[in-house]
Hints:
The chain has about 350 residues and is an alpha+beta fold. About 40% of the residues lie in helices and about 15% in strands. β2 and β3 form a beta hairpin.
Amino acid sequence: MNIKKLKINDKINKIGGLKDYQKDILNELLNTLLDNNSVDVKGFLKNDLVCRKCGSKHFVKNGSSKGFKRYKCKSCGSTQSIDANTPLYNLKLKGKWVDFVYLMLSEQKPLSCNAIADKIYINYKTAHTWRHKFLTALNKVNPIRLGKEVELDEVDFDYCVKGRIGKEKYSKYNHKDKSACIPTKLREDEIYKMSVKHNSYFVCIHNRHGDFDFEPLKIHKKGNVSNKLIEKAMKDYDFTGKTIITDKGTSIGKYLRGVKMIVHRDFKSSDIKKGIMADRNIHNNNINNVISMFREWSRSFRGYSTKYQWNYLKWFRFNRLFSGLSIDTMTKYSLEDKGSYERYSDILKYYKDYMVA
């Protein structure tokens, strides 16, 4: 099934005056006509390989496998397919990837894994795996462009223990020796205690022109995070010549005092509530609105593991800002980042680093 078939199925189901068996016949006829018009995902792959073993970029052709070209590294002699380091790597049903991307971004209210699995005939586990391979590939796509005024604020989300109790969900670690953090199973009472006392923290950046983004800080006991963590999260952002607007939070304030060539303007949240602000342009209402919309948007998931929090924030951003992009463009984006497969494969490592940052 391809994208055109999905659209036709939806339209046929909305036609009035036809009985169910007539809709099935019409569906079958139209789908037969479209069988030779599916999108070939190979056309989205670029020949810009990086060796998975030695990091070299020098390859020679080495035949093909299952319709995909293979290459041999000149440095170490290892071979890999053109889809290596992309979400397509090791996928058995590569031809359905474009349909999957369409379903992930075609609705403002996200479809469940079960709904996607039913539409393109894959199982639930496959749909869930593909979801996070795709979302991991969005983490580096279309970074925010900063305006003259930028809002910054810390945001926190509940530490969620949804899913199978196992090594990927919980970590017990020695605060004195953070390098010794090894994920382990915890008892039920320890899990409950941790979920109540911890939140996952992010910095939200809003450019006041409608665009926003998030950077992860850490999973942390409820309270303030350090200015060092914020400095680490903001290392790729250039605030030179910008006006940074924040509340009077101590951590962000300490971080900004060390940033040169900026104008920092802060406010008391209580003053906004009382309506006694001297300058009504000094606020972080844009960030508050974004977080409120995200919480409403994410309710349909009925919870998700904290290790996927950044993925869901990125998904929400794309649904809000880039829903008008063509499916071809989004498919291209999902396959361009050669580091996405590694990030997905090592999500437990990133999650561990996030725990002890």
